[in-house]
Amino acid sequence: MNILPMSIPDVSLASKPNSDDEEHEKKILTLLSDRYKEKFTKFPREKGWMSEDVYMYQGFWYITDHAFSIETVIAVQESFQAQSTDIYIVTQPKCGTTWIKALVFAIVNRTKYKNINPLNHPLKLYNPHKCVPFLETEIISNVPTYVHGNSPRLFSSHIPYRTLPKSILESGCRLVYMCRNPKDALVSWFYFANKLTDKSRTQMTIGEMLNVFVKGFLPYGPYWDHVKEYHKASSEDPTKILFLTYEDMKVDTASKVKRLAEFLGFPFTEKEVANGVVDEIVTLCSFEILKEVNKNGDYRKGMANNTFFREGKVGGWRNYLTNEMTQIMDDITMEKFHGLDISF
Ligand SMILES: Nc1ncnc2c1ncn2[C@@H]1O[C@H](COP(=O)(O)OS(=O)(=O)O)[C@@H](OP(=O)(O)O)[C@H]1O
Predict the structure, then answer these.
(1) Which of 121, 158, 226, 231 is flagged as catalytic?
(2) Domain 8-336 fold
């Protein structure tokens, strides 16, 4: 029986944040801030998410001095070099990033981990965000996850389509985009924001969160423009950009996983299907299993693993939004998505 760390060296490298890594990230962030501050402080600024200043860059809003900030986004855009075999997973935050990352990781690496003890599968040991790193965190990381040059490399990001590094668009690689009903994304944002362990942050009401969500003053907002751009790009080149919704993925997940595998260039064989491999992947990546695996520990400083797993439901917004809030969200969605085949 194979056991760690021999069986999964690449992922174990990125498993645990330690104080050296945090120091390194801080240093890189300071460096990036020094490099870009003069530029971005001239951009439009608003008070946004949890009372933080947000800056507009290329039509979208960002916080500063953070892994997911204007500095890292500009740095990725300016310096990241894609490879044609790469696979990118892009989402608006709170739209199912963690789930789709787990699914893509499990599909692409299923042969690699076929013979290991299922308890040692990376997704049974690590947060999916460690298995598929964000471009935004990778650029400031002390321990790049893909030092061994896996192929295909898997990365994720929340970067809007228009701000993606040129090399991603030119390399011909594949990109999976997942979106979600904005009302569920809003509620998820609300709980996430208030659960962050950094106590220096201000707690928000759902009404305040709705206000910033609608204005787009959240990292990578506005939601609607983000979704629309990827939807358009996907309809122009569906072989390279796959547009998914969280809601659709929830219905008959196994058949959607098969379609996803085909798009990724890793189709399941008839034998695999007969042997239940697809169902195994669906179960491995299910909300319940991932929530249990991630009940302890931190993904990053101030961000517990369990903050990524709350309810995992479709339509949970009904328990949190008033009729008036629902109306506001529905009106904007109707106007913004008018004429597009996006439904939740
Ligand atoms: N495996 C699985 N299946 C279904 N749903 C899942 C899964 N993992 C996480 N979730 C739910 O996704 C919501 C978090 O969104 P993201 O993963 O996009 O968050 S983040 O952007 O990475 O911070 C958040 O939704 P809410 O429960 O509505 O808050 C999570 O519970």
Answers:
(1) 158
(2) Rossmann fold (3.40.50)
